[in-house]
Amino acid sequence: MITGAQLVAPEGFGQLCKGIIYYFLVNDPIHNRVRMVEFLLRKEPIPVIFTFTTSVFEEALEAGLILETGVVEKFPPWLKRIEGVTISHLEECRVSVKESYDEKVNRRFMAIADLVFNAHKILMREDPDAEINAHASLSTPIQNPARLRLWFYTYITFGRNKWALMPRSHSSGRWDRAGANRTVKLGRPSPWGKKAGYPCDKQMQQKISSGYVKYTSPKHTWNRMLREILTNEFGCVAIEQGEDFVFRHPQGLPYPSMAQVKYWVRKLFSLRKREVAQKGGNRARARSGDKGSFSEKLINVNQLVEFDGYYISEKLSGISEGSVVDSFCVVRAVCGVSGAIVGIGFSEGRENMESYRMCLFSMALNKVKFCELFGVEISPNHWPCEGLSGSIIFDRGPGANYDVEPQIDWLGELELTPVFSGQSKSTVESSHPRDKKDLEQPEVLQSKLNFVTMARREIRQLLEDNLGSDARGRMEEAMLLAGVKATPIGVWNYWSGRGRDSSIGMQFDSAVRTFLSQHPATIKQDAVYFYGRKYRSTELVATGIFDRVAKSAVVKTTVYALTMCVRHVWIDLNGVLYELDMVRTLRTLEGESDISLSDLRNLDRLRRAAVEKVNDQRAALQQVQRDAFKHETGEDWQAVKHTKGRSSKNAASMRDKSDFNRSRGKEK
C-alpha cells in the first residue's frame, strides 16, 4: 500500500529541509522502508529519494525531527493553477495545437509504463534511482534520467493519475519583466517601428496608476482619460507629424504608449474596480452578478418590510370638470420573506410622507376593514396580512422627515436607503406593476377614473399580485412537499401558520390616532360638518352631543380622515374614538361619497364661492326689483305715511272699512 503525506523537517535533519518532501511508505512483510522525494518548486523539480529503516524513521517522528503538516496532496504542486480545470477547457484555451494534452500525457506514461508495472520491486532495491536511470538509457528513444525519475515518482505519489504528468506549459510567458533593467520596449512591435517606445518601468507604472485614479470618471471617455494621463502625469504634448497626430515629450523623456496604458490599467486594477470607475457604481452593479437574495437572512414574515412608491401612467379625471389632472403615487409595503404586499397608501401628485403613513395605517388594520373604507369588499383569506413590522426601509426623500419618537412603542429599526440606490430595496422595486414599452410617439393617457376609483383599482391590483405572482424563488423544499401554493400569500400563510410571524398588532383606534392626520371640523345641532359635508353615527348620537349644542351654535373640533377617501371620518370625544359615516339622502347619487379629501375641499370652496356670490348679488337684486316696481306703479317700494299713535276710528275710517269688506264679498 502506498500513501503520501506532506512533511516538514527542522534544521539539522540533512537535506530534508530543502523543500516540500513527499514520502512513500511501503508495507512489505520482509522490508519496510520509507522512500522520500524532494521537489524544488522554483525550478525544474528534481526527484531525490531517501531510504530509512523503520526504526530510524519512527525515532525521527518521536523526536520531532519529522513533522507531518497539512493534508495528503492529490495533485503536483507545480500544477496547482490548473487543478480542477477540465482538460477539454484547457485544450480550448490553446492557440496553436501541435500535440494535444492527452497525447503528451500518454507519451510520458508510455515512457514509465514498465517502471510502473514493476514499481513494487524497484522501490525494494537498495538504490531505486539507479534502476530508473538504467531503464532510461535502455529506452527508445533514450530518456533523460532525472526527468524519467520525476515522471515515475510523480505518477505513483499522486494517486496513479496520468494527468499528474501534465507539462507546466500553463506557466509559459509568466516571468516577471519588471525586475530587469531594460532599455528596449518589450512585447509585440509597435506600428511606429520595431524599437519605437519605451519599456514601462516601476515609475511609469506608478504614474499610470495615479493618473487613472485621478482622471477616470463615468462621465469621461477612455480617450479623455488617456489624454489626461499623458499630458498631466507624463508632461507630453500632442503634435502634428506629417499626416499623423502623435504624443511626444518635449525633453525626450520616456512615456508609455496607448497600449501600454491600457495594459497596465488592466494589470493594476481589477475588473470590478474598473467597472465602478468607468461606468459608475449603479451601472457596474447592474452589470454584476447577484450576491444572493435579501430574504436569505430573514426567518419570519413581516420581520423586514420595504416601502417604495410608483406612479401610474394614466392621467386622472377631475371630480368637477372631468379634465386631465395629475396622477397620484401608490406606495407599497412588501414583506422581505414572502414577497407579499402587506400595505398600500396613496398620495395625490408626488410621493410624500402622507402616503407612507397611510401605508402603515393599512398594515396595522384588518384588511377587510381597510378595504371597506374605500368601498371594496374582500374575503379575509384574500389578504390575511395584519400587523406592523419592527424593521422598515423607507425612501430617503419622504422618510427623512419622519418623526420616529412617537412610534417607539412598535418601531424597532428605520432604515433610509442611499440616494439613487434601487437595489437597497429590490424586493419592493421588483414587485411594482410595469407598462409594456414601445418606440411609438408618446401620448397622454387620460383615465375616466377619479382618485378614489383609481385607488380601488390599485387595491384590486394588489390582490391580483398577492394571489397570482410567481413565488417559486421563495419556496423551500419543505413547502414543495407540503403542497404550498407558489404565491406570496401561500408563502405568507405557510410561515405565519408555523408561528414564524413578526407582525406587531395595533388597536384600530390607536392606528387612527397614530397614522391619520387631523383636520378642522365643526359640530352643529344636526351633524358634524367636515368641509361642508355632514357626518353622523348612531353611537355619536347616543352620547347626546347634539342635544348639548344650542341651536345655531357651532362647536369647533378636529377629526381624523384618510386623505384619499372621505367616506368615513373619526372624531375623538371624551377619550373615545367614533367612526362617522357621510349623511346620505334619497337624492345622493351613487359614488358621491367616494371622493378624496382634496376633492371635498374643492367642493367646499365651490360651495362657499356660490354662497358668497349670492350674498354679493342680493343688494343689487333687491334694487332691480324695487326700480321695476316704481316704473310699473309710479310709487316707491316703501310708500308709507308715518303717523304717531294709534289709527283713528272716526266715521271716515268706518266707511273705508265697510267699502273694503263689500269689495271682498263679506258685507252682512
Keywords:
668 residues, alpha+beta, Nucleotidyltransferase, domain 5, 4 domains, six-stranded antiparallel β-barrel, five-stranded antiparallel sheet, 20 strands, elongated
Query: End-to-end span in angstroms?
Result: 154 Å
- CA-atom Rg in angstroms: 46 Å
Give start-end ranges of low-pLDDT stretches: 1-43
What is the averaged pLDDT score? 78
Number of domains: 4
Q: How many helices in DSSP terms?
A: 22
The number of E-state strands comes to 20
Q: Under the CATH scheme, which class of the largest domain? A: Alpha Beta
At CATH level 2, the architecture of the largest domain is 2-Layer Sandwich
CATH topology of the largest domain: Nucleotidyltransferase, domain 5
Q: Any idea what the shape is?
A: elongated
Main β sheet profile: 6 strands, antiparallel, barrel
Strands of the widest sheet, in order across it, are 15-16-17-20-19-18
Query: Structural class of the secondary elements?
Result: alpha+beta
Percent range for β-strand residues: 15-25%
Helix percentage range: 25-40%
